[in-house]
Every structure is written in C-alpha cells, then in structure tokens.
Amino acid sequence: MRLNDILSWININIRKAFNIKNTLLILGITMICTLVYSYNKLLFHFLSESYTVLIGFLMLVVATNVSEASENGFFSFLAIGFGYVGAINLLHVINYEGINIISKSSLNISIQLGAISTYIQAISMAIAFKFINKKVDCRKITYIYMTAITVITLVTYTLDISPAFYLEGYGQTVLNHWINIFSCLIFIFPTYLLYKHKNELDFEKDNYTVILSMIFTVLSRVFLIFYIDPNGIIAFLAHVCRVLSFYFLYKSIMKLVLREPYNILFKGLNDRTCKLEEINKELNIKNNQLETTRDRLEKSKERYKQLVKSLPDSILIRCGEEIVFVNNATVNLLNAKNRSEIIGNSMFSIIHDKYIDEFKENFITVENKKQRFLNLELMTLDGNRLDTEICEIETVFENKLCNLMVIRNMSERKKFYELKAELDQKIESEKIRTEFFANLSHELRTPINVIYSALQLEDIYIKKNDISGIEKYNEIVKQNCYRLLRMCNNLIDITKIDTGLFKPCMKHHNIVYIVESIVSSVSFYVKSKNIDIVFDTSVEESYVLCDPNLIERIILNLLSNAVKYGKENGNISVDIYDRDNEVILNVKDDGIGIPDDEQDTIFERFSQVDKSLRRKCEGSGLGLSLVKSLVELQNGNISLKSKIGEGSEFMITFPKTDYYDEVCATTDELVEENKIIESVNIEFSDIYLY
C-alpha cells in the first residue's frame, strides 16, 4: 500500500465531495456563521458549540434506537462516540468565559475540554473500524463512554492537576500548541483505516461525506494551532470548520444509521413481495397443470376400468365383506351369467366354509397395506369347488378405500404340479432302478467270473494232481459263493421288509455278550488288513429286547464297511455304554469318511458314495439301508457322524430293559461259534484276503 495510492484516493473522494450541492451548502453555512460572528462573537461561539452538542446528541439517540436494525456497526459506533463528544463539548460551552453558567468557569478549562473532545473524536473514529459490517452492543459502549466522561469531569473539576492550556495576556501555551499539532497528526491513522476499508464502506453510496467531516476536523485543529485571540478570526474559522465537520458526519450517519435500516426493512418486504408474486405465478402454473392432469386421470380411469374388465386374470374389488366390482374373467370363473349376480354379495358367499376363518384372519382383521397372499377354495354359483390363489392389495374405488383381489384358478395348475411330481418320482425311481440293475449285474457277474476262472484253473491242477492248487482255488470259489449268497439274502430280506413279511425273533438278551462275541470272531479278517480293532464297554451286562441274529448282521455289516473303507494301520473301535434308559452301541473307524452332502442319503436303498463300476470297494448299495431297517425293526435308531479324511462313527440306540425272564439259558443257544464264523464269511465275502 503506497502513499501515492492513498493520496490519489483522497483526491478522488474530495472531488466527489466538493460537488455543486455541497459547495453551496458550505458557503451558506459559512455566511450564516459570519453574520452571527459579526453580530456577537460570544453568541457565535455559544451557538456553534451548541450546534455540535445538538448534532452529537441527535446521532447518539438515533444510533441507540436503530442499532439493532443496522447492519453496519461502523456508523452506529461512530454516532455513539460523537454523541459523547457532544457531551464534552457541552461542558466546554458552559465553562467558556463570559457564558457565566457555572461559577468556576474559565477559558483554560474550556480549552482543555475542547482538546479532550477532539482526541475522543479521533479515537472513536479509529475504533469504529473494528465494527465494520458487525452488530454493536449499544448498552456496553454507552457504559464505557459514560464512565470515561464521568472520570474526565471529576478530574477536571475536582483535581487541579491539568497543565495550563491558556494564560490571560499570553494566549495559548506551548503545550496547547503541540497538543493541537498532535491532534492533527492523529487523524492520519483514521484516514489510513478509511482507505483500507474503503470496499466495506462502499464510497460509491455517497459515503465520501465522512472524508469531508475528517477534512474539516483537521482544518479546525490546524486553525487552532495558530490562533491567539479566542474571539479572533482564526478561532472563528476553526469553529466554522468544526460546525461543517459535525454536519457532514451527521449527514452520513443519518443516511446509514437511520435511513438504511428502513431501506433494508422495505427491501426485505419488497423481496418477499416479489417472492410471493413468483410463488403465485408458480401456483397458477401448477394449478393449470393439475387441471390438465385431472382431465387425463379421468380419461385414464375410464380406460383402466375397461382394461380391468377385459383382463384374463380374475379381478374382484371388495369394500369390507361386500363385493363392489368384478371383471368378465371373474364372472366366467364363478360360472355367473353376468356381473350383477356377484356384485353386492358377501365375500363369504363364494368362499368354502372351512376357509372362511382363515380368510378373516388374513384379509379382514389384519391392518396391513402390503400385498397379501392366500390359497383357498372358492365356490362357484353352481356349487363347484375351485382351488385358487388370491393376491390382495389396498386400492381406491369410487373414492373409497377398498381391497383389490387378483384370483388365479389353481385347479389346472395343481393337477399339473401333481402330474409333474408324479413324473419326477417315476423318473427318479427309474433312475434308481437302472442304477441298481447296472450295479446288481456287476455284483453278480464279478463273483461268477471269478468262480468260472477258478474252476478252469482247477481243471489244470486236477490234471497235474496238484492238491494244494485245487484247495487254494476252492477257497476262492467258496468266498464268491458266500458273496452271491449275501447278495441274495439282502435282496430277499429287503423284499420281506417292504412287504411286511419279515418278523424278527425278539427276546431279552445281553447285548454286551452278543457284540463282544461278534467282534472276537472278525478279528482275523480285520488284522489281515493291518487294522486294529478294540472292543470296550462301561457295563458288564445290558439287556435289550432284540433278535441276536439281526444284531449279528448289523454289527458284521458295519464292521465290513469299516474294514473296506479303513486305511492301512488304521483303527476300529466298538463301544457299548448306558445312557439314561438307553443302550448306546458305537462303531467308529478312522477311514476315508463320508462327504457332508452324501450323509443324508447314505441310508437310502441302493445308495453308494462311489457309484462307478471301477470303484475301489465292492458292494450293492443295500447294506446300510438294510442295517437301518433291521435296527428300526428292533425299536432302535441309527445315526452317523463323519468327516472326510477323519473317519466315520455309527451310533445305534436301543431301549434298555430290566426284564430277564426270557433271557436265553445257555451261551451255545445264543451264539454258536460255527454259526458266527459262517455269518462272518458271508458278510466279509467282498473283502479279499489274497
């Protein structure tokens, strides 16, 4: 910010200020002052100072009352400050020598107060810039100025500590001379601030009169530097400049502090009026649009009715229980002659009796505005029953809140689904049958081929009289015969179970002894596969109602699977323990395990994890299905826990019994060793030891 810029800005605003109007005004005020001065110098001094007091008080009153509405605190603060400058000027007037208002009046005190008022004026102008475009707290500022005025008054009148500013016969003192010089210089700072904030004050709005006020204030202090006689011409010019200074400041403040708030208020009203006019125009446009839309809606409503009437789906509208509208498809669905036969009737007249309560619960009593669905039977007017699916939603019909129902005839669709389900079942049955026969032919052909091959080899050994070779292949023939016998037994038993002809011989037996004997009999087969088998029980005796032959088949089947699907150097454990009123039998291995998605179907007939004909282990897929059936025939349950790579655990549960009267008398009658071995040979026939 250069000095040339400031001077140039001041020069421009001075040119604006000294227009014809202001120039004539200045000349007029000067002429009036000259006339009064020439008439009575003391009167002139009194009137000029009284004028500044009056102007100051006017600015104070106006600023205090309209400060809340003013948006620019700069002028409000300045008006309050100059109001209290007027108060100091009042003290200056009443102390002037010759006025004789107070007894202790003197020219020295009057000049001191005049200097004080000038400094307060300069300080007020400097501080006012802090409130540009801000609200001011008039009460707080008033308290500050009142305190300052009170202190000044007390110091001036009670304490004789102020140096002399004027001496009779000598004139103004050197101190007063320098104070006047300094007061001229101190106005440089407000001038700089005025330039700095010129954009906020917007001098294009005639605010340059503030600059005129500052110029005349400075000129007033300049004249006071050189005056000798208080009533001389120089003092006269100083007072004229002071009058002009207050006038132009009053003009600016009145414009912005008094007139501008009202302009702002009226501007706000004008803005609101304009907005209301714009809103009114928009409302008129929207009203026209609404009229157009209403006409379109009426036409659309008519088209909608025609569309609903011609829809292929049955449409019914009810208000409460009363039917108020049906389309042509509903008339045909209910075998009515026309719509009038249905409209006006109760909904319950077309609903089958057993569905009325359900309809009330879902559609009549419920307060739900969303779509609702229900399957129920409707009654046609000629008494036929229809399976239907109903979708209902709220709608407005004839300016009433009603319910629109879309009715679909599900009779044909139901028949279709039933036929489809039957077809799917037959396809699945045929698929299982095909897989079974393919598997069965494989299971039959394999042992037969083995037997045939063994017989051919035996012919060779017979010719060579090699008895050991013949015995070896006799064992192979025997094992495959057992395999065929096992398959035949399983098929016969499955058939008997399905037809209800399979009757177990149920008696009370010690299941611990039965299972332990079976486990001991299979140890040879198990160890031949490098698998360890362990039998463990927490009870010595536990009696259940069972058939020992079926228990034997169940355990042998599970152990056969554990051996076939167990890993080398693996383990099989058979545990028996009591739990409440049940006996738990666990068969656990650490083999390959069963996938999660196969565990739900593993007990189904013909089910196998590996269905391919190149599978590693042989089997017909009947074993576990037969086991489940045999367990359930003895009032038991079987369940499975398995995890891939960790093995499988089958848990069989039988009801425990405390009735011992029918327990078999001898062990030989229960489990004969030769019979168990025969059963083991049959159940383990698909496990080859060579």
UniProtKB/TrEMBL annotation:
Gene label: resE
One Pfam family cited in the UniProt record for this chain: HATPase_c
Enzyme Commission code: 2.7.13.3
Domain Histidine kinase: 439-658
Species this chain originates from: Gottschalkia purinilytica (Clostridium purinilyticum)
CDD domains according to UniProt: HisKA (cd00082), PAS (cd00130)
Lineage of origin: Bacteria, Bacillati, Bacillota, Tissierellia, Tissierellales
Reactions performed catalytically: ATP + protein L-histidine = ADP + protein N-phospho-L-histidine
One MF term in the entry's GO annotations: ATP binding
Keywords: ATP-binding, Coiled coil, Kinase, Membrane, Nucleotide-binding, Phosphoprotein, Transferase, Transmembrane, Transmembrane helix, Two-component regulatory system
Coiled-coil intervals: 276-310
Highest rank taxon of the organism: Bacteria
Transmembrane segments: 20-37, 43-62, 74-94, 109-131, 143-166, 178-195, 207-227
Protein name stated in the entry: histidine kinase
Xref: PROSITE patterns: HIS_KIN (PS50109)
